[in-house]
């Protein structure tokens, strides 16, 4: 069980996941996939919090991460309800077509 | 041993992340996101956060993603087609630039952090449920109560938004 | 012994016993429901129908596995695999007995003692919802989709009272590890009432059991897979081994949930009577049952069961002899008594599950959801609040 992993690798993994989340947020056109990219970004941030909590040997990072999860749950609930309403009114899930207020 | 587990689950996480962005069908993206969350839970276990790993699986992978999967199934979301007014060149150039940017960030991170910090499974055991609970209900009591009100607001809002108008 | 080899041996024993139990649980269910409905149940295959599970396994394996057209193959095949593997994984943190020493090996009667064992079981049951939802959606069939969505909505709605009912004894016990929860329930009040968690937590136990019925999709909450309502719901399009996988997953979930109820509320492997008497109870029960079976079986006017009833009597007397013999070997006595009480309690709760299936009609879907949110969830909250109040006042 010897040989640890340098802490920077966890932060690099977190940065990669965050970058992938941003890419998904910008590229994809389906509202639900855009939402899931936001959740991916939140997960990457959670990993950063837990890594620094390990490094500083304090449990506060875990608590922040817990609050991030709770807020993500609340946001997912309301966001999906909004998506359901948008679908009911516009009959589409592509964000390019929800553009009636564009110039 | 720690390094082996890290590489396996970090690889799974990155693979599922790329699959989330690249798949056309939303259900496949949702399952990839569940894969990311599961492998992140294992990484939290390695970092000594056993309560937060269990909370990740119960709350994130077991409740929030179920909500996503429900909505995708209810709305019968189909696979996304290619759009006509987005330049394909920009898409491929973007992928290359994203890879370059992530490589640059990785290099900067591992250059600025001290090399002596290493993560060994079991080196820190301060992330148990008792420790998290103690901090949560003493130092962070106000944010805890505020988030419970926040969830109540979200609950009422979601029910109001999604109900059927009779 | 090497930790890895020991764990592999324990895993092999647990897996073997569990899979046999799942097959014979189905036999027990069909027999009990048959007798509730004044008929006999499976009777012909083997003595008293005992080889019926074997015949069922052979049938299910050799049946043609039909994959419908236009299904998403990956998810169609993933769903039963996920169901069965998750149902079997959650058994790995449940303890069956105390620490034992065989030869030079000292080990717990448990595959692994996680310090967050309760959270692990809750997490695995949360992820088990996906197997049902994916199975229903991937079948490309309206009835399956509807059944899958209803079933998963029911499972996540009832997870809430389940988790709250589990949280109340955790307030009393102050730990999340199953082994320590059972060790807390040691001892007796007034010398003869066992210190089980069910006595302070009667409401919690009832809420847990009702939520467990709904979590495992059993009657009276089995509308999503009812044959006459939804053409078998989410597993309509599955045949042969995939169907067998869903079936096994349902029984494994039942075993898990009753085992968790036993560990949390009924004192795990602790005997309900004080020590000198509790060693004689299994001998008395098996001896008595054996004598009655042999006596009635050897009656000359008996026409049916002429050979199987005396044979069963002889088996019971043999078990009584084993328990009596183990009185002289302390380590064997520990193992046998722990297994007897744990399996006895789990089998009793499984009998309650089967009994309810033969007795109650099923809920309509909206009645079911209303029951979860309007009745069970407030009851579980009230139980938790009262427990918290009593614990806080007691610790002053």
Give an overview in words.
- The complex is a heterotrimer of chains A (103), B (166) and C (396).
- Chain A is built from three helices and one strand.
- By secondary structure, chain A is mostly helical.
- Chain A has a domain of 64 residues: Helix Hairpins (Orthogonal Bundle).
- The termini of chain A are far apart.
- Chain B has two domains: 78 residues, Four Helix Bundle (Hemerythrin (Met), subunit A) (Up-down Bundle), CATH 1.20.120; 39 residues.
- Chain B has six helices and one strand; from the N terminus they run H-H-H-H-E-H-H.
- In chain B, helix 1 packs antiparallel against helix 2 and helix 2 runs antiparallel to helix 3.
- The longest helix of chain B has 26 residues.
- With 396 residues, chain C is mainly alpha-helical.
- Chain C has a domain of 252 residues.
- In chain C, the strands form two sheets. In chain C, strands 1-2 form a two-stranded antiparallel ribbon. A two-stranded antiparallel sheet of chain C has the order 3-4.
- In chain C, helix 3 runs parallel beside helix 10, helix 4 runs antiparallel to helix 6 and helix 6 packs parallel to helix 15.
- The longest helix of chain C is centred in the first third of the chain and has 34 residues.
- The model of chain C has no long low-confidence stretch (mean pLDDT 87).
- Chains in contact: A-B, B-C.
- At the A-B interface, strand 1, helix 1, helix 2 and helix 3 of A face helix 1, helix 2, helix 3, helix 4 and strand 1 of B.
- Strand 1 of chain A pairs antiparallel with strand 1 of chain B.
Question: What is the topological layout?
Answer:
The complex is a heterotrimer of chains A (103), B (166) and C (396).
Chain A: E1 5-6, H1 7-27, H2 31-56, H3 60-90
Helix pairs in contact in A: 1-2, 2-3
Chain B: H1 2-22, H2 26-46, H3 50-75, H4 88-112, E1 118-119, H5 129-138, H6 141-162
Helix pairs in contact in B: 1-2, 2-3
Chain C: H1 3-36, H2 52-62, H3 73-89, E1 97-102, E2 105-109, H4 117-127, H5 129-138, H6 142-173, H7 178-184, E3 188-189, E4 193-194, H8 202-215, H9 227-230, H10 241-265, H11 275-278, H12 280-297, H13 308-326, H14 330-359, H15 365-394
Antiparallel strand pairs in C: 1-2, 3-4
Helix pairs in contact in C: 1-2, 1-10, 1-14, 3-5, 3-10, 4-6, 5-6, 6-8, 6-15, 8-10, 8-15, 10-14, 12-13
């Amino acid at each position: 069980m010897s040989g640890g992993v340098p802490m920077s690798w966890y932060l690099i993994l977190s940065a990669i996941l965050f970058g992938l989340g941003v890419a998904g947020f910008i590229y994809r056109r389906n509202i639900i996939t855009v939402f899931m990219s936001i959740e991916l970004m939140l997960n990457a941030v959670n990993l950063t919090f837990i890594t620094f909590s390990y490094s500083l040997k304090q449990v506060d990072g875990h608590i922040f991460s817990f609050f991030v999860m709770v807020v993500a749950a609340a946001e997912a609930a309301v966001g999906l309800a909004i998506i359901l309403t948008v679908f009911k009114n516009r009959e589409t899930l592509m964000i390019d077509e929800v553009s009636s207020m564009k110039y | 041993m720690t390094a082996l587990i890290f590489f396996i689950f970090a690889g799974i996480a990155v693979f599922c992340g790329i699959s989330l962005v690249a798949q056309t069908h939303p259900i496949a993206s949702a399952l990839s996101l569940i894969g990311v969350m599961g492998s992140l839970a294992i990484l939290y276990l390695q970092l000594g956060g056993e309560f937060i790993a269990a909370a990740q699986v119960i709350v994130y992978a077991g409740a929030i993603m179920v909500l996503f999967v429900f909505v995708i199934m209810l709305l019968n979301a189909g696979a996304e087609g290619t759009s006509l007014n987005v330049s394909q060149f920009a898409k491929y150039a973007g992928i290359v630039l994203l890879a370059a940017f992530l490589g640059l960030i990785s290099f900067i991170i591992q250059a600025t952090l001290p090399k002596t910090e290493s993560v060994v499974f079991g080196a820190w055991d301060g992330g148990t449920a008792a420790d998290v609970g103690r901090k949560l209900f003493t130092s962070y009591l106000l944010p805890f109560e505020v988030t419970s009100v926040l969830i109540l607001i979200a609950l009422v809002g979601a029910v109001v938004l999604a109900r059927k108008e009779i | 012994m090497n930790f890895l080899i020991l764990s592999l041996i324990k895993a092999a024993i647990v897996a073997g016993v569990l899979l046999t139990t799942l097959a014979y649980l189905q036999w027990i269910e069909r027999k009990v429901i048959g007798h509730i409905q004044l008929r006999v149940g499976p009777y012909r295959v083997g003595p008293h129908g005992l080889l019926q599970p074997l015949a069922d396994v052979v049938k299910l394996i050799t049946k043609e596995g039909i994959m419908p057209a236009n299904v998403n193959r990956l998810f169609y095949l993933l769903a039963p695999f996920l169901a069965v593997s998750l149902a079997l994984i959650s058994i790995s943190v449940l303890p069956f007995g105390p620490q034992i020493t065989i030869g030079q090996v000292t080990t717990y009667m448990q595959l692994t003692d996680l310090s967050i064992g309760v959270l692990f079981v809750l997490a695995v049951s949360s992820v088990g919802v996906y197997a049902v939802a994916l199975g229903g959606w991937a079948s490309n069939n309206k009835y399956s989709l509807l059944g899958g969505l209803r079933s998963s909505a029911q499972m996540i709605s009832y997870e809430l009272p389940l988790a709250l009912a589990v949280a109340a004894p955790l307030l009393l016990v102050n730990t999340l590890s199953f082994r320590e929860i059972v060790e807390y329930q040691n001892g007796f009040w007034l010398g003869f009432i066992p210190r089980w968690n069910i006595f302070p937590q009667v409401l919690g136990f009832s809420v847990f059991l009702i939520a467990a019925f709904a979590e495992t999709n059993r009657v009276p909450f089995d509308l999503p897979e009812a044959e006459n309502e939804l053409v078998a719901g989410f597993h309509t399009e599955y045949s042969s081994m995939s169907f067998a996988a869903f079936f096994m997953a349902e029984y494994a979930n039942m075993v898990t949930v009753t085992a968790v109820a036993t560990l949390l509320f009924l004192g795990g492997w602790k005997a309900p009577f004080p020590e000198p008497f509790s060693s004689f109870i299994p001998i008395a029960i098996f001896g008595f049952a054996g004598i009655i079976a042999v006596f009635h079986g050897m009656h000359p006017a008996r026409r049916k069961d002429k050979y199987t009833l005396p044979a069963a009597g002889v088996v019971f007397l043999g078990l009584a002899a084993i328990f009596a013999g183990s009185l002289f070997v302390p380590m064997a006595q520990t193992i046998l008594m722990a297994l007897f009480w744990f399996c006895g309690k789990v089998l009793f709760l499984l009998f309650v599950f089967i009994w309810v299936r033969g007795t109650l009609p099923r809920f309509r879907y909206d009645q079911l959801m209303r029951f979860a949110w309007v009745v069970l969830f407030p009851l579980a909250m009230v139980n938790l609040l009262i427990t918290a109040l009593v614990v806080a006042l007691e610790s002053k």
